[in-house]
Write a structure and sequence with these properties.
This protein has about 180 residues and is an alpha+beta fold. It has a single domain, classed as Nucleoside Triphosphate Pyrophosphohydrolase, CATH 3.90.79. The radius of gyration is 16 Å and the shape is globular.
C-alpha cells in the first residue's frame, strides 16, 4: 500500500468535475464527490452484504452494500466499480454489471453522487480484512425484515440506497 493521499474529483450540483482534492479535505469540508455501490445477487436471488471493518473511518462495523467505494480522480463510475470488486471482494474475473440507478449527492449520501450497479455472482470472495470484517448472503425478504427491526445495524448510505431502489429487487424476488 502506498502512502500517497487518495485524490477525489470534486463535483458541482450536476456531477461535473470542478476540482480535485485529497480525500481528507473532501470529507472534512463536505465537498461533493463520487462513489459507487455494487449489489451482488447469487443464483438463488440472495443479496451479498458486507460488514464494514472496525478500522473504517466511516460507519465501522455496519452492514453495507456488497461492495462500495469512492472514485479516484479521473476515474469513471464503471471503472471504480470494477476496481472496488477486485480490491474488496477479490474478484479476478469480470462479471456483467448493470446500472440500477443514480443517487444525488446530499446529506443522506455523505455528499456523494452514487451510481449503483447490480451483478450476479455466487463467489467465492476473498474479503479484504482492512475493508470488510465479514460477509453474508441474505434473502431479500429477510433483509427487508432486518432493516425494519434494526436499521442502525446498516450504514446510512445503504439504508438510503435501499429505500430508493428496493422495488427493483422486490419485483425480482416475486418472479
Amino acid at each position: 500500500m502506498n502512502n500517497l493521499p487518495e485524490i477525489f474529483d470534486v463535483v458541482d450540483l450536476n456531477d461535473r468535475v470542478v476540482d480535485q482534492k485529497p480525500r481528507s479535505w473532501v470529507h472534512r469540508l463536505g465537498l461533493r464527490h463520487r462513489a459507487v455501490h455494487i449489489l451482488l445477487l447469487n443464483a438463488r436471488g440472495e443479496l451479498f452484504l458486507q460488514k464494514r471493518s472496525l478500522s473504517k473511518d466511516l460507519n465501522p462495523g455496519l452492514w453495507d452494500s456488497s461492495c462500495s467505494g469512492h472514485l479516484h480522480a479521473g476515474e469513471t463510475y464503471e471503472e471504480g466499480a470494477w476496481r472496488e470488486l477486485t480490491e474488496e471482494l477479490g474478484l479476478a474475473e469480470p462479471i456483467p454489471l448493470r446500472p440500477v440507478g443514480k443517487l444525488a449527492a446530499g446529506q443522506e449520501t455523505g455528499n456523494e453522487f452514487i451510481w449503483v450497479y447490480q451483478g450476479e455472482c455466487d463467489g467465492p470472495f476473498v474479503l479484504d480484512p482492512e475493508e470488510i470484517s465479514e460477509g453474508r448472503f441474505l434473502e431479500i425478504s429477510a433483509l427487508e425484515e432486518e432493516l425494519r427491526a434494526v436499521p442502525g445495524h446498516f450504514s446510512p448510505a445503504f439504508v438510503h440506497l435501499w429505500s430508493r431502489l428496493r422495488h427493483r429487487f422486490l419485483l425480482r424476488e416475486a418472479k
